[in-house]
């Protein structure tokens, strides 16, 4: 089922994300897109202009023995059916995030992959984001001491974009769209059970789905994390704000502007000078004395052993474990369900985490 | 009991805060400090150097008919006894914050004031902070539309300062020290019941009292507020971050650096251009198109009708209501107790607010 030594891929759902994958695949070199399928025939025409055969039906894709991999980039509500049918037809599957709209749906997909003995991998591509990998490096190397607080925010001011992302039936909303990335990054980095969780969903734009959310997660190892997504933030807070026992780190945005400020153990302790703060004085909240801290650059990011597509090829060849493991994806889907419930009930949730 | 037409004050507890009050009183002009009392005789010597008689005992203060007002600036655990005795002796009382360590203690103080028909006012001076008053103005005037989210943070990196503030028995810790201000500002600004609350206390420095905390408050009118105090933040997040239906406002620090960014209704809608963000593209989180928003300066602050001391004088004269009402102080003390409990239990608290 390979072509010129390359793994053959059909992209199902040839919208913005589908065509982005076509570009990623071209850049990678180990795969080749041999066609696309989209229920919108206009997208079929675009596909042909782009040089990719437009299949006339999904059945046609499944019955084509030349197709080795089905890549799913459709709205979220149809991921499961498309994936289960592809796996049953003997295809490997790459699926966009969020993989499904519920834990149960994803379990069905995992079972189908197991039964068909085919590879199913979810494109949690933000495990490869440099901003995240810098924080992961700080976490692992103790750059600012033991990290005990992580704040991971993504702020925009454009509301919810696109069409189906406004609709609950299609799995719209920002928790499923961006939340899935931020939660995935956290559980990939922190190897500890989440013991409690509270959340708040935002519906300020009047959509039927959340236009943002915040969740506070407490890990068993003592770390607390805030995960926040907003689409009504005309001024943004930093992408990452992390506190360790020896300092604080910040990454402002994807341009990687940021810094770390750590305690200067070499300096003699000098009391800070009280400052006028509004109608009062404060020494507590005054800047530390000049010699008390050291400002430094962000460390180099942690390096993933391979790219998403290189890893997928290695998994197909049986030479590597998936970097994105389905058990982790399942754990994140469960977290999302719990965050929805915590937001709806206003309760603090406990004893829910699928941490193994 | 006046002297040269001025109200006479004895300051009990002549430490940093006590001597700061002496300066405030001198600047005000309607009051005169006629002495101090401190259990530390070294502070008595400083008082005399500063030109203020050092009373030899608290009984001596109480039995001195020339004393009209007792100002309490001691550690928190002795506020109540000093106040109750002063009121019983016919003195008016100004008390530093936090007024007491519990709701019950403050109820005793309020009852003593009621019985003695004397004025008891708590020095919640941060109702006069310009940064807060700018936010209050934005809240009242709809500068960024209807405000639905308020984040009020005070970040320092000096740990807990001083001596008794490290000790639980004296009412140390940051929730009682700074939290009381931030909560007081919120309830002074937002006239709505708090329907739920969750919190997390920080003990990262190994003190027996909290070295910081965060609390999330949900108001009945739809506003959610985050209140956060940290003493291990080597990089600070903005003092105020507020979101409204028409924009976002930020005040970085007490220097009043800040701005508001609002939706530009005059401009035609232009879709934002997707940006590369880590390993993916995003249109949702791309900056709004250039014409989509307007950046402006912070508004002028709301103006309090009078200063704390002018208001106190007017209340003594019976010509004004207190700006800091004891019912509000009681509500904040109750909030603090609930935040301690929420932090200890990890539960979301409901049905607790003393909002009348």
TrEMBL record, chains A, B:
Domain called GFO/IDH/MocA-like oxidoreductase: residue spans: 134-248
Domain Gfo/Idh/MocA-like oxidoreductase N-terminal: 9-123
Superkingdom of this protein's organism: Bacteria
Molecular-function GO term, any one: nucleotide binding
UniProt xrefs under InterPro entries: Gfo/Idh/MocA-like_OxRdtase_N (IPR000683), Gfo/Idh/MocA_oxidoreduct (IPR051317), GFO_IDH_MocA-like_dom (IPR055170), NAD(P)-bd_dom_sf (IPR036291)
A Pfam family it matches: GFO_IDH_MocA
Name of this protein: Gfo/Idh/MocA family oxidoreductase
